[in-house]
Amino acid sequence: MVKKMKQFKKLLLVIPAFLLIVSCGDDFTILAPQSERNVENFYQTDTDFRTAINGAYAGLASNSLYGRNFMLLHEMRSDNTSNAGGATGLAESLERITRFNELPGATELENTWAGGYSVIARTNTILNRIGNADLDNPALGERIRGEALFIRALVYYNMAITFGNIPMQLDEVTSPQVEINQVSAEVIYNQIASDLEVAEGLLPASYTGNDIGRVTSGAAATLLGLVHLTAGNSGQAEAALRRVVNSGQYDLVTNYANIWGPANKNSVESIFEIQYKSGGQGTGSGFTEYYSPDLSISGGVGGGNVPQGVTADLLANFDEENDERYDGSFGLAVDETIYLSKYDAPQSIAFDSDANFMVFRYADALLMLAEAIGDTPEAYGLINEVRQRAGLTEPFETLAGSFEEKLLEERRREFVGENKRWPDLLRYGVAPQVMSQFLANEGFTPADIRLLYPIPQRELDSAPGQLTQNPL
After folding, report:
1. Nearest Cα residue to 418 out of 277, 260, 284
2. Residue 294: CB partners within 8 Å, gap ≥ 6?
3. Of 14, 23, 243, 338, which is the most buried if we count CB atoms within 10 A?
């Protein structure tokens, strides 16, 4: 029975939760046949596939991924924000993340891994089934295939950034006999780049009506550009990002502060957002609680709800008087605490904000294209376009420092609180230096900075000898 339970845990990561209709107390051999019968009965109609792809979007929005944990692992990990909820009790694991000594059994790691592979499993099932379905609207089927490829690629990108060498599962799993195929992050990047090239050709440039917010061809090209930059393929990144910039679909919002909040969802600057909807249906966001203090509901920063405070180092990086992004990013609480205000939103129910989370926006495409092009007048023009929106008149090329140093800090100011700082530090190859300097007062050296999170111990135990742990 112990062996069967280990197999069951492993299968949980690769079969969508709504297909798991047998409890762990039942004989495991019953699971696969019943699961397969449910798949056969479900994936047949246009409505079935719409429901399935919506489930994949919901997985992205869950607390395991963009709704909470990516914010912890990619923003709180960095020098932008820190754990503001104490260092003992339930907050101990959060403090460990900020101090690079998280444990392999940390709930945040386990849930991120399980949530990521759950979404991957959902998309794998869609991709396996949709080609054989007799749909009333074949064009819809092709679009959904593109959406599934993008969502899978987005999750795999985040998983590779977080854990490095991870299992790559591209096929639907219908049997408990799961082969764990752990591959390098480079293999993951190559695969998702190939998938995104296909997805871009299947997806529309824009949507209308209730479909606004779904993945577009521009979103696929933006992620493709990011993946190529991460893999060191500047030329391929440039080609993908030029398609975004030259598409005419996007522009910078005139006022930086008007990017945020429920009234500004899916603006002209938006390339891809995680969609949230308040109303007590479990589809709202908790980001207001995570960042904003002095709330009448659920505490806010310091209230025990995964609170995050901005660092003094981050605030010192801004030209407070001239950079409009300062007032557009931060607020002042009644106790004079400076906090990240991008996610402020009126709400009557705790963890039920109507504000979306921005994954990609046009400013990101401009700055990544500049990164891909390199130290040239054309790149300066792209960066200055972003700086001028912020009210900064001094040309980028006249600032002190190297091109890469200046661009990295420009990205820091532009995207604070948007889950980009830690991946940026990794991509630029400066995470050990930047973070050890940030934590120098606590005796940190570059050798103390972990570049990868531990693979959850639960996964190692469930697949003995099949996964190699990251350095601890």
Report:
1. 260
2. 300, 333, 334, 335
3. 14
